[in-house]
Response regulator
Amino acid sequence: MSDAAKSLPAILYVDDEPTALKYFQRALAAQATVYTAGSVEEGKRMLDQHAESIAVLVSDQRMPGAYGNELLFYAWDRYPHIVRILTTAYSEMAHTVEAVNQGQIHRYIQKPWDIAALRMEMRQAVELARLRREHAQLLREKLLIRQKQAVANRIGTLYALCAGVAADAAAVPVDAYLSAALCAGLTPPEPDWLMMDYSDLISSEAFRGAAFGCLVRARLDALAGGGGVPGDVFGLLAEVFDDGFQRTADGGVIVHTARLTEFLETPTASAVSSTHAAWLAVLLWLGRHGQTLQVSGGPDGVRVRLAPIDAAPTPQALAGWIEQF
């Protein structure tokens, strides 16, 4: 395929009549790369093979073995960016109306075609496909930005929660908590906020953070009243994570790593579990004793070992963590 042909938009035309395929291809050759298929099944294979480059799908309605509606639905379900057009020489309004109502087609063109009108229809369909792609790309970029904002806000909330119950600034275990989340492979939160008003989102996040804080404080108070020492931490982690924690010679391995990321990655409507709250409470309890956990990733999970606190977190350090997520 020449460079000029590669720069043209692609149209897939499906029809069981070889003459119609040749006629369509010749009519559109100057303005598009035209793929053709002689049946619904072949059309599906062509879609699967060239979906990224195809802008428009045009399908005849009456074909042996299956109606064009089936192919249009297939494209609608798997490749919604493709503009779908139905064409037929028969008066089959029942099938056409059904396809329109189900959102399977953009336009209906009756045969025989007027070549000038057909070229105009294809030009408009290609332009619509381009606009759809641009719109989808903008939505993806907006989603990524919103996801980073959501994680950043939750990291800020996490620091506030920890600072509110820690004995001093040095006891805020942000480094250990975020290191573990990073090693666990944090996934940005699901975009349930796309369906929410901004005020509802902020309200939901605030109540979620407050509920998490209450859980953490309750677990921390229980640990503080237990009279333990930092050396007991791996026994505590075994209790918190149950079979998801394995002891090692110098510390332990948290096997069920999804339990380390809940607050940062679960949707705003999802409550944080008591297990996750206990994990943060253990880190805070250690901080009150001048200790923390050094965290590293591994093939078997997230490895932890006991270590003294180096320094209190700073705004610059917190900003650096936010950038990493």
